[in-house]
Amino acid sequence: PYAILANDMIGCCKQCPFCKTKCEHINPDHPGDHRVSIHRPQCLGGYRRLDTQIITLNSCTDSVAGDGTFQSKDTNDKPYPYKKYRDIYKDWTILPNSSRY
């Protein structure tokens, strides 16, 4: 009974690949994609510009709505369009912020 209660209290422990905000599903074995309603600035997940090493304050929802790229170990450190993030992170849904674009 304690394990079941702990799982319900902790929920899904997967983190957004960009800002590292925890998935908001309460069931660790939830069906469907991981999701977050409010993403944090990506610098809190360790993202920064490679050319300047300056942290990025963009949120994930802004990034997937724009025309920018990201690089990570998951892309073999090659630039990859944010708009195509689902090619790499198939189990995440990040809704684009369409109000800015």
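(ticket continues) Second input and output from the same batch:
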Amino acid sequence: MKTHSSVTSSRRKNRKAHFTAPSNLRRKIMSCHLAKDLKTQYSVRAMPIRKNDEVTLMRGSMKGKKGKVIAVYRRRYCIHIEKIQREKANGQSVQVPIHPSNCVITSLHLDKDRKKLLEKKKKSDKEKGKYKMEVAELDQSSQQIAFQSIMQQTPFTMFTFKKK
């Protein structure tokens, strides 16, 4: 169901926009989730992939393999990871193209621009109210008070379902 009036829900138009996207938009499309330890460290869920990041494959026939990104092909929407190759019929080895959505970043290659982007994303999440209340660290009485305050802020409704 269409919810936003200025955004198309047409499959044809969305496919055209995806496959004719300029390089700066392809960079954003080619993002990877961060590993759990990096998520907690930087308070960021995903980042655009780049050369020299270390990734782990989460999907496909090469699932579980780890390696360093050696190339990011925006035109083909794929990345190449070192040590992930296959043999051609003539015996020559060739890199296997992998879509970034099938990977998880385990180690970021940080430079000043990437650090700035992490800070910017972290700030925007706090402004949107995406921070979590640390209830686990509180003692028993404080947890009950925190739970009651949360319950008062969010209205709950009961639903009953009738059989026809």
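Agent notes: The mean pLDDT is 86. The radius of gyration is 22 Å. Closing as not reproducible unless the customer responds.
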